[in-house]
Amino acid sequence: MKFNLKFLLITLFICSISIAQNKGTISGVLTDKETNNEVLPFANVLIKGTNISANTDIDGKYSLSVNPGTYTIIFSFVGYESVEKPVTVKAGETITVNQVLSSGSYTLKDVVVKSTASKEKETALLLDQKNAVVIKQSIGAQEMSRKGVSDVEEGLTKITGITKVDGRGLFVRGLEDRYNSLLLNDLAVPSNNPFKKIIPLDIFPTDIVSVLETYKTFNTNLYGDFAGATFNIVTAATGKSQTKINFGAGYTINNNLKKFLISQDATSTADFFGFSGNERDLPSALTKTPSNQTLTADQAANGFGSGFDVKSDKAPLNTSFGITHSEKFNVGKKQNVFQYLLSLNYDNKYQIRSGADRIFNTAQGNYDNDLVTTQYKFITNSSVLASLTYKTNRLSLTSNTIYLKSTENMIQDQVGYTNSNAAQTNGFIRMNQLSESTLFNTQLFGNYKLTEDERHTVKGGVSYSTTQYELPDRKSFKGIKMDENTTSISYTGNSITRQYLDFKGDEHISGLLEYNWKFGNEDLSKSNKFTAGYSGYMNKMGSEFRFLVSQNLNSNSATFPTNTPDATLKNEILNNNFTYREGTNSTYKAMLEEFINAGYVDLALKFSDKYELNVGARAEQTHRQTKYKSTGSFEDPYQKITTDKTDILPSINTKYIINEKSNLRFAASKTITRPVIMESYPLEFVNPDGTIERGNEFLTNSSNYNFDLKYELFPTNKELVSATIFTKMIDNPIERLFTNSAGSGGQIITYGNSNKAVLYGAEFEFLFQLERISKSLSNFSFGANAALMDTKVTIEKVFENGVNNPETIAVDSNPTRKLQGASPWILNADLRYDSEFSEKWKSSMTMVYNVYSKRIYAVGTNGLDNYYEMPFGKLDFIWQNKISDKFDVKLSVDNLLNPAYKIEMGDKSRIPITESDLTVREYKKGVGFSMNVSYTF
Description:
This protein is mainly β. It is built from seven helices and 52 strands.
């Protein structure tokens, strides 16, 4: 047997050598005519009629190994004319075929909304931006990799006028999350978090993304819910057969390797990967419909699968890993293409946030709550993407399935006082919370050429999603901190609470069908285009909120070890000293149904080689029904709020081509803004420190009138200079405001419609190769973008129902202020240096900085000034290394300046303020260091 095995291995070795010796090699360099014959990296080289292909490397080089014979080579790059060349290969020989590519007569001038997986290169995306009629910006996989971007949210901050706020999503032109919309491959998807307008984009790893498209001006094929921007995530696809694995580790100062608290029931291997069990489910002893029942001793002691105990340890390093595999085949006699991609990604991080956490009392002008809050968060994100694509000469059909899951295990400690009880400085509140969110989405979409000349085409798709957001067994206790390890509590006054919140998106179905006809010229690139289409979605969701509170029996207090109270509390229950009773009221359940149906038409006219016009209209019909119960009996019927409205939303986009390198654009449109689910949902969400977030079911949609004028210059295919001025007029803008609750105090964050808002602003962007200054700087490039904006909001002094507006400025004769959430200015910049340490080791170093200005976080009421989010600047360093064809290494330093994130109350309150420090919230993130290694084979 050993002899046979050895013989077999020798035979295979000899055969492989003989096969290799019989093959020939085609190699060469591709250069770019548009940049004075500089090398062209990442271009495609394909042997026609086969699946033998390669991409040029960073030096524009390629190499193909083939059997002897005569072939045709196809050289291609997005935005450039493809070139075919015949070549004859002999055994054992190397044939050199160099090629120059140019844009020639090929343009993308008829692009309005078009996404292809190959648009990942920065040069291709700049060309797409240059030739599109609508005002659009994109960032592709290549740029995100160079800038060290690990998730979609971070990637979008590299686009002009977009900033990220920790935990609050993306702000576009100073406007916060509620003004944004999200598409996934041009199809609508729901948010998996009722507190966010769109899916938190930091859970999307960039490994499953090809291109991020951002539309800041409205076009009729976009949904009418548009004021800040519409983001379109084009998921990854590939034209190559390859497998890529990556692993990363990270350390953040004052976070990792520091004391860290985590719930004792969140320490299993399954919890580490974000897949907890059912130990936090609602106890089976509780009836399906709340009934204010009191639990027996056995039910209270043994009915909960999760306890209050926490584990104290040192936080390990943050980690991430992923694997992506793709294959491409040619099938059938016509060599149609079939390709698939499978990507699995996981990351986690340990996060500590500590600092002041206060609210002010409107009656006395002092602190109502004065706490130091420390949060210990263990966060996981998991994603799976499976993609199948089939292409023929006329059909492209893709099936995508995505699963996203995020978890956050948090222990929150608050020390200080609440309810203006300033004498009790050692008050203590601990909250043990798990939040889980999931999104399952499957899509089928494609394009078909009705005629071979592409004069008539259709595209369409359908998407099905389910979502869930849970806060299972969100438990807390509050009392007195006796020392570092001991807490004393009283059973009265809801000192122990257990909350259960479940938002379930039962189904979200969206669809798209669009017909395009090019007419008026035999040359399709110079033709006019007529578009007619339908897009819409149906969304059904429901929520349920249950909570239990402590009920004293034979005793009124207990003292226990702060981190291990379970044994003491169980013993107290079994001794009939206290139990739990349900405190849920009749408002515990609500449901939402929403149907959006829209038809649209668009006409793209090319009057000459210089002037193009897109004009169209969208008729969008909205049906929204909210079902909820008011305070009263559980048997009372649901109340309903039904909205039926049809909005006619026109748009115009024009482009004047000044010369080959510069454009002038104008856009105008009418759009609407729908509130975030929680903003208009009839639910009151109570925190252990007495603060409350309450939806306003009577919110109405905003109407927006948008105007943009933009000049852009493209000195080369790698450079850009642009300037934009814009105006928005908003009727009934939606804003966040705070007020004090009745009774025992506490702050309520809620939402309302103001009367009108007007925004004026300007954006500037440039991207330069610094060799313009000196040849010695040829490896440097510098890019920056900035947005400036002024806003004015007019409010009503008295509402239509006769109630006085509680806003502080409502007593003025002509009350006006700035728009909540809008930043007067934003700045992003990056400096890049490219170098070569050896023939195979290529390096790119990038410094990235972004900062936003002071803006209103929440509107002040009852005599208090507004709460302001203070300026925050972030500086990152990324060192990207391609050590060989197989290995990539990325080193990053995040948040180098480590400024404090801070919210302050303004100094223009109308009542006397007795406190000297107006800080409401403050913490530091820490400086982060990370390394990621990937291997491709």
